[in-house]
Amino acid sequence: MSGKQKMRNRTYRLQTETRSQFINIDRFVEQAIGESAVRDGICLVFVPHTTAAVTINENADPDVLRDLCRACDRLIPSDLEFRHREGNSDAHFKAGLFGSSVTIPVENGRPVLGTWQSIYFCEFDGPRQRTLTIRVIKG
Asked: What is the pTM of this model?
């Protein structure tokens, strides 16, 4: 990366396997930061989909992710009488609750996350081929 360049984008493709799932994407974030050669700055993770999202949550106990999926399905069940005809209105609501991006500080070429935190791609309308964009910006 040249001295004048202050950011770098990296796009990844994901194939999801089920209707609702959380996929750990730490490796993609670490790879994008490493390729950018940014030592200190921020990392923006963006999901360009209306039925998928990104979040930061616990990585120590896999039951947390299972509980999140179950709670989302109970909070917004797919069988509500939605007017949207595609049959995926629940996925739109769930994606909206989580959001389409997260920003992570970068220090010494590494993402700054809490001890138990990881970054997750959230699928709510799978299985599908998905895209994830990561931008690393020099501080």
From this structure: 0.92
Superfamily, domain 7-138: YjbQ-like (2.60.120.460)
pLDDT at 84: 85
How distant, in Å, are the alpha carbons of 1, 44, 53, 77 from that of 72?
Answer: 41, 25, 13, 8
Nearest to 128 by CA among 51, 41, 39, 42: 51
Which SS3 state, helix, strand or coil, does residue 2 take? coil
Show the tokens assigned to 138: 């020099």
Please state, in angstroms and as integers, the Cα–Cα distance from residue 64 to each residue in 60, 67, 89, 117, 135, following that order: 8, 5, 24, 12, 28
What is the spatial distance between Cα 86 and Cα 55, in angstroms, rounded to a whole number?
25
Reading the block at residue 92, the tokens are 């739109």
Token pair belonging to 59: 């990585």
User: Hey, what are 7's tokens?
Assistant: 């950011």
The span from the first CA to the last CA of the chain, in angstroms, equals 14
Domains in the chain: boundaries: 7-138
Q: Is residue 35 over pLDDT 80?
A: yes
